[in-house]
Design brief:
CATH topology of the largest domain: Rossmann fold
Structural class: alpha/beta
Order of helices and strands: EHEHEHEHEHEEHEHEHHHHH
Oligomer: single chain
Shape: globular
Largest sheet: 9 strands, mixed
Radius of gyration: 20 Å
CATH superfamily of the largest domain: NAD(P)-binding Rossmann-like Domain
CATH class of the largest domain: Alpha Beta
Strand content: 5-15%
Number of domains: 2
Number of strands: 9
Helix content: 40-55%
Distance between the termini: 46 Å
Amino acid sequence: MKNIGVIGLGAMGSGMARSLRRAGYKVHVCDARPAAVEAFVREGGVACASPAELAKACRTVVSVVVNAQQTEAVLFGPQGAAAAMAPGSVFVMCSTVDPNWSVALEGRLEALGLLYLDAPISGGAARAASGEITMMTAGRAGAYAACGEALEAMAAKVYRLGDRAGNGSKVKIINQLLAGVHIAAAAEAMALGLREGVNAEALYEVITHSAGNSWMFENRMAHVLKADYTPLSAVDIFVKDLGLVLDTARASKFPLPLASTAHQMFMQASTAGHAQEDDSAVIKIFPGIELPAAPAKG
C-alpha cells in the first residue's frame, strides 16, 4: 500500500481521504479536531499528531484546509509539513486562494526541493465521498508524475490547466463567482415567492423542472425547504471566496457588478449572525418572509 497524507478532514477532505482508502492507499490524516481524526482511524486510517509527522511518512501530502492562512500554518507553522517533507515530495493544495499567492507558493516550495500542485476542488461533500469531485489543477510535469494516480482516485475530472501554478486557482475563483451569484439569485427568487404567498414546495418543484433552474437552486433551496442550515459550505466561505474574486478583478480594474452584489448579500448574512450556517442561509437577509419550518420530529 502506498502512503499518502490528507490534512483537513472537513466535508470535502474526509470524503477524499475515504476515496483514497478505497483505491488502496494507506491514508495518514491530520486535523485540528481530534474527533475527526479518531473517526477516520476507526475506518482504517493512520492518525498523525502534526503536519510534520504526516509529512515524514508520505511522499504526497494533500491539503484540504479552508484558506491560504491555514495552508501557511500547515506548511510553515510549528510542526509544519514543509521542513519534514523529503526532497521530491509533492504538496497538493486544494484550497480556494488568491492565484498570485499560489504562484508564489510554488516558488517557495521549489526552493526547498519540493513539488507543488495548484489543485482547487469543487463538487460538494457527496461527490467527495464517492470520488467524483472536479479538480482544477496546474503545476510542473514532475508534480503530476508524482501524484497523478492519487488525483484520479479522488476525482471524476482532473483538469490540467497549465504547467505552472496559478491557472487552477484562477479557474476555481471564476467557478466561485458563478456559485456565489447562483446561490444569491436562488435565495432571492425563493424569497420573492414566499413574499408573494407561493407555496415553497410547489415553487421548488416548478423551478427545478423549468428553464430558470440551476444546480445551486436545486441543491441549496432543498436545504431551505427542510429548514436545515447545517453548514456543508458556510456563509463565510462565500464572504471569503467572492472577496478573492473581487480582489482579482480589482487588480486589473475589471467590473463585476453581480459578484459585488452577491458578496454584499453574504456579508449581510454573516454580520446578521449566520456566518457559520449553510450558505443557503443568505435567504435570511430578506425581510417580511416566513421561511419553511423544520419538519416535526417523531
